[in-house]
Design brief:
globular, disordered N terminus, 22% helix, Sulfite Oxidase, Chain A, domain 2, 7 helices, five-stranded mixed sheet, single chain, alpha+beta
């Protein structure tokens, strides 16, 4: 026969269990918070220690009134070697990718081919520039990059008059790159290119840092290109080779020539075959805004493209060649 529980005992027990439940909830919440903090710390941890180079002085000629939060810029990106077919949390797939030691070769149509190691790259005169960045997918951000104009590097190699283009090759380490292993049908390594006049433009920037620290892996450590008036895929990451060429280089996205052209300037008048480019949206807030010509750098680079379309063009079809 069961005894009837006394009211006072019942409520004491109830309060005990509630307290225990709150304690468990608090413990779980605290554990989740610690896990979240730990994940963010891993996401934002620079893979190199180059305290002597940071922070670099900001060039006031390249500044913007707002900057995308560092954690937002680090949490989402495109780096097909690690996360194929889509943008996302690339940093989660890069643990085994090592960025030191590293060498960057300059070769091809030049008088003085050179190989730069990290010490030489970080010994360049560095500055910080806040640039607009626009992905072909539509998202945008404002990012403080640390580095130097590409022309400073090319001047060391002394391009020949026969050099009309510059090709950039990204690292290819299939054992450390799940995206490469899952996409062997693509033409690896990733190669992008510029005309020589584009490469020598003062805006074209070699970045070795971001947000006042060395580049994160997901941003293209240890060295990448930033071409702010073009769509983001024209700014290759983790570069190992720069080659000066007579002919236009065969770039990675030639596999879809009606979608991704060699120039690929940010231009709302030229739609992607699968979506409009008329509006952009901020990566951190989702707020939309009209896409500015050349991503807002028309004054600096407009003269390079006297035939840039100024009126709406129809989407290209398979078999046509994108600009």
């Amino acid at each position: 026969m069961r005894r009837i529980t006394q009211e006072a005992a019942f409520f004491d027990r109830r309060r005990f269990l509630e307290a225990l439940g709150l304690g468990v909830a608090a413990a779980i919440s605290g554990s989740c918070s610690r896990d979240a903090r730990g994940s963010e710390e891993r996401m934002l941890a620079p893979p190199l220690d180059r305290r002597e180079a940071f922070p670099a002085p900001r060039n006031v000629n390249f500044d913007l009134p707002s900057i995308t939060p560092r954690e937002k810029a680090a949490a989402h990106g495109n780096f097909l070697e690690f996360l194929p077919g889509r943008g996302g949390p690339v940093w989660k797939y890069m643990e085994s990718f090592e960025v030191a030691p590293w060498t960057l070769e300059i070769a091809g149509e030049c008088e003085r081919p050179r190989v730069f190691d990290l010490d030489r790259l970080f010994a360049m005169e560095l500055e910080e520039r806040v640039y607009r960045f626009r992905c072909v997918e539509g998202w945008a951000m404002n990012v403080p990059w640390t580095g130097f104009p590409l022309r400073n590097l090319l001047d060391v190699a002394r391009p020949l008059s026969s050099a009309r283009f510059v090709a950039f090759t990204s690292a290819l380490h299939p054992d450390d790159m799940p995206g490469v292993r899952e996409s062997r049908y693509l033409r690896w390594p990733y190669v992008e290119g510029l005309r020589m006049d584009e490469a020598l433009c003062d805006l074209t920037f070699v970045a070795t840092g971001v947000y006042g620290r060395p580049l994160l892996k997901q941003h293209g450590a240890p060295v990448r290109l930033v071409v702010p008036w073009k769509y983001g895929f024209k700014s290759p990451k983790s570069i190992v080779r720069i080659e000066l060429t007579r002919e236009e280089p065969r770039t990675f996205w030639r596999i879809r020539p009606h979608e991704y052209g060699f120039l690929s300037n940010v231009n709302a008048n030229i739609p992607h075959p699968r979506w409009s480019q008329e509006t952009s949206y901020w990566l951190d807030t989702g707020d939309t805004f009209p896409t500015p010509l050349f991503n807002g750098y028309a004054e600096e680079v407009g003269a390079l493209y006297p035939d840039e379309p100024q009126s709406k063009r129809p989407p290209l079809r398979p078999g046509e060649i994108a600009r």
